[in-house]
Task: structure prediction
Amino acid sequence: MSASVQIPPPRTSLAALPIDQTRGISAMWCVIATEAMLFVCMFAAYYYLGNNKDRWSLETPPKVTYAIILLAILLSSSFVLHWGEQQVKAARFAAGRMALWVTVALGVVFLALQGFEYYDHWKELAPYSDSYGSIFYTITSLHAAHVIFGLMMLVYIGVLPRWGATARTPHAPYHTVAIYWHFVDVVWVFIVALLYVIPVFQAMHHGH
Result:
C-alpha cells in the first residue's frame, strides 16, 4: 500500500498580498499610548513635588501670555494639517503638501517663541533653582523634543514623492504622522492648564 503524497498549497507571492494600510496607524497609537503615560508620570511628579504645604504657590508663576500664544499656534497647525488630510483623501495632493509645509512652518515658529519664553522666564527661574524649576523645564523641554520629532516626521512625509496606497508608501503616512502631531498639540493643552493657568490663579489667590 503506497503512502499518499501531500502536495503543499502554492505559496502566495508577497507582491500579490493586499496592502495593509492600518499597520502604521496601529503602531502610532501604541507609540502615543507610551508617550502619554510618560507625560502622565511627569505631571504626577510635578504635583508630588509641590504637595508640601502648597509649595508651588510660593513660586513666581510663568507668564501665561506666551503659553496662550503658543497654544494658538499649535492648534492652528492642527487645523491646517487636518485640512491637508482632507485634501489628500480627495487626491488633491498639491494642496495637502502645501498644508503640511505650513504646519512645519508653524511648528518652527512655536519652537522659536518657546525659546524666547525660556529666555524671559529664565531671569526668574532656572532648572537648577529648585525642584519646581527642574520639573517645569523637564516637562516643557520634553514636549519641545516631541515637537522636534514631529517636525522631523512631517518633513520626511513632505519629501515623499507620492502618498497613495502604493507599495512605496503602504502605511498611510500622512494620516499616521498627523495623529502624532495632534497628540503633541493635546499635550500642550494640558501643559498650559496645569503649569501655567492654574499656578497663575493660585498666585492671585495668595496675593502675588
About this structure: The two ends are 98 Å apart (CA to CA). The CA atoms of residues 147 and 184 lie 7 Å apart. Residues 166-170 have pLDDT under 50 and may be disordered.
